[in-house]
Amino acid sequence: MSIKSPYLLFIGDVPDALAAKTAQGVVDWRPERCAGQMRMEGCGADLGIPDMSIEEAVKAGAKTFVVGAVNAGGVLKDTWIPEVVKAIEAGMDVASGLHVRLQEVPEVAAAAEKHGAQLHNLRHSDRTYATGKGTPRKGKRLLAVGTDCSVGKKYSALCIERDMKSAGYNAEFCATGQTGLLIAERGVALDAVVADFISGAAEFITPETDENKWQVVEGQGSLFHPSFSGVTLGLLHGSQPDAFVVCHEPTRTTMRGVPTPLPTIQQVIDATVLMGRLTNPAVRCVGICVNTLALSEDEAKAYLANTGEEHGLPCVDPLRFGAEAIVAEVESQFGK
Amino acid sequence: MSIKSPYLLFIGDVPDALAAKTAQGVVDWRPERCAGQMRMEGCGADLGIPDMSIEEAVKAGAKTFVVGAVNAGGVLKDTWIPEVVKAIEAGMDVASGLHVRLQEVPEVAAAAEKHGAQLHNLRHSDRTYATGKGTPRKGKRLLAVGTDCSVGKKYSALCIERDMKSAGYNAEFCATGQTGLLIAERGVALDAVVADFISGAAEFITPETDENKWQVVEGQGSLFHPSFSGVTLGLLHGSQPDAFVVCHEPTRTTMRGVPTPLPTIQQVIDATVLMGRLTNPAVRCVGICVNTLALSEDEAKAYLANTGEEHGLPCVDPLRFGAEAIVAEVESQFGK
Fold this sequence. Notes:
2 copies of one chain form a homodimer.
Chain A: E1 7-12, H1 21-29, E2 34-39, H2 54-59, E3 64-67, H3 81-89, E4 93-96, H4 106-115, E5 119-121, E6 140-146, H5 153-166, E7 171-174, H6 178-184, H7 198-205, E8 214-217, H8 229-239, E9 243-248, H9 265-276, E10 284-290, H10 297-311, E11 315-316, H11 318-321, H12 324-334
Helix pairs in contact in A: 1-6, 3-4, 7-8
């Protein structure tokens, strides 16, 4: 999937910032790809970039109208449909993170057909992949894994990419989820592919590359999450990481959406090494990324210091304090 | 997916028995569901049941025309299409294990529409599932896992179901693949569901049941197969087995279709317990099933005795010598 930027980020009339987090993720990480935001009356979110009409966005060069909001049931609201149609008539493609496929909305399908617009459904995977082969590929890979879903794997990978680039590495974020796709412009929503092709799609996302280039791969789920562990293992085997970081949220006690208790960081390190060895016998942990949003600055620093010491690994909140310690660990283990 | 029997098993003009193995599996395990076979001129396979025309099969009560043959590219051959259409016109549903969806063949789609026939695509999953929850469910479950794909997991599960029933257990084979679906009449082809729903579909296949009933679950792939490990882990977590058997083919040196070396039986036991604990903390191995087809009877018996002793577990070729020793182990560990 390859999505043309710049984007006009449409967040409709969502009630709050949480419902606009797909769009916010793009603004946070790729502001240069965002022409502006478009909001409707009553919108309770603000992405912090210029408000634009469809006409203004097209004048500013916008190529894709991004429905960057979630909605109960994942449908395209009736009041949003005319805006999507207008965007197509003005010459834009459309990308949507909703559950419904854009092609299933008759007005949208008809407009796209008439104007030759591309419709990108970020949650769906319409192409086929080869099955995974497990053959070693040139290049280096770092995968973000987690003690749970939604613990900051995507943001950790993006921080590590940023700090590796600052340190002079050739590094590239590789997207495996819908928000990641808009940030990277390409990638695959791994949870949407047919089960037989998870590792094959992961191999497609992280192809052979230069010996010294690092692909920094967005993780999915957790080996210990009873809903999504299959995606996690297929991604681990397909991306054949040389290095991984474990992401963790310290105040969580049960896995997201289910009553299963959280595994320890050490359990995740051990299981990732044990299973990851299949396609990369030298796979190793290079750090721990903690989302300390719920902790004060002092609490956060103490937690990171203790956790790092306990595991003998750099431990950072990459968003709050930077991921430089993890990049230093990569340099000491793999060189530059 | 629920498929009406008896079946008319259509194997067209396949060159050999291997190309008819889906149909053969149904004849081997559920002869009472098979009205007859239908072959075309030049067919190199024989399922060993009566040859029938479509008219004869309908008179004999056949409800579903099963395309039980594989074909290069997984397409419905041009010369097979008229037979499928005739079967629909005669009042039968159609089930196909081919890659192509029956609905994509215009003549077949039109006939089904006109006559109200159901079209079952065994390799595709058209319904949606909830995501897996991991919540403990009543009833008991035994899962067949493997050192590789195609090492006899389905046949082992069917042998164990048979021998548990003979020993007085309430046991039911649960299908997770296309041939299994025809044998069980229901189930889900797990490798065809969207990746996010693997464990949810596995929970759907193995629902809560009577405290003393055993669901004997067909396995898929291997935790150590770089192409399909995600399906295997999702099935392990979703089926939350109390017991598992490891299936193995002793002459194989690399995993099917890839150059990855085979894991040891002990590695599979250890990884299955480690990962399986997430949804069933008491998961344990109750035996080893070896496909000894490539060994003489003396070699086979020696191999089974040595392997069983090495692991301290019953070790059988369930198809050649029966699975009674595994049923006895289940009884000693779980009672009756």
